[in-house]
Amino acid sequence: GAAQPVTAAVTDHCQGQCADILPPGENGNATLVEILGNKAFGTHPAHSDDQLDRYNGLVAGHTGLTDQKLTDFFNDASFGVPANQVESVTSPREDVTITRDKKTGVPHIKGTTRYGTEFGAGFAAGQDRLWLMDLFRHIGRGQLTSFAGGALANQGLEQQFWPQAPYTEADLKAQVEFIRSSEGARGEQAMADAQAYVDGINSYREKSKKGRY
What is the pTM assigned to this prediction? Predict the structure, then answer.
């Protein structure tokens, strides 16, 4: 028969001591069908609100928080997903896989190259938070109302944000160039990592647009 692929052992660099929480959930996207389902039946897309209860529990439980109780309120963030807990595995490039767990849908990014790993992280972020990214991109440019509508709350947020951070496109470009030029090899690597991450986001954006999802 065909040779079986060799799987490298997963090293948990957190040593079982990393945990996180993302209220209300991992998934921040919804299809049109899921939106209609929410309107009609109150249902939610998978993993859109399944961390909310644990997060809310911190309001009353934080005073008694101990190492032993940590996982009562936070998710285990150890690297890797046990075989019986794998929900999905996708590979947007040959050099990276995105494995999500059944419980919370958190993506675990594993790459064989640095570029591929950063790309996969961007791709997964796009899957979970593409709309939110676009929202904050417009807020950062003082363009919220043209993106999300002219509601009073949107106008207020837009007007509050811009005086506090009145950066122009030229300012943004200068900041990027400063990192690239003043930090030497580390700056170049940082920019390459950022570009790989953005490439991953854009790859998902293009696929989602073509696939209408």
Answer: 0.85
